[in-house]
Amino acid sequence: MERAGLGRRFAAISIDWAIATFSAALVIPLQSSSLGPSLTRLGVFVLEVALLTSLGGASAGQRIMKLKVLSWPDYLFVKPTAVFLRTVLIALVIPAVITDQDGRGLHDRIAKTVVVKL
Question: Which of 24, 37, 89, 112 is deepest in the core (most CB within 10 A)?
């Protein structure tokens, strides 16, 4: 299986963030300047990505970009606890930015996952 490149992964997370932003805007207006709307968007993002990845192996953005999250190194379906841990680490941003020579982010290494092209 071929690992997903950084460009596709960035596009997928951007799509997921846009979905979370517009979903949260149904409850809290986008123009609000307090901390509440930002935390609401982040919560919706974590729930959406974790739930969809747990149920189908990919978030909405990853499905659109034809990516899938699998366990490492055996390339099997990922357990929900590992998916939730991975998603929370993505929300913290820094673990998602730090990558190794294989192109796997720190969040993938901790959760023992890998993102591959379909």
Answer: 24
DSSP result, the chain: -PBPPHHHHHHHHHHHHHHHHHHHHTTS-TT--SHHHHHHHHHHHHHHHHHHHHHHSS-HHHHHTTEEEEETTT--PPPHHHHHHHHHHHHTSHHHH-B-TTS-BHHHHHHTEEEEE-
13-61 pLDDT, tens per residue?
999 999 998 898 888 776 666 777 788 889 999 999 999 999 999 999 9
Separation CA 103–CA 83 (nearest Å): 18
What is the reported pLDDT for 112?
A: 92
CA–CA gap between residue 63 and residue 102 (Å, rounded): 22
Classify the C-alpha dihedral 96-65-50-47 as positive or negative.
positive
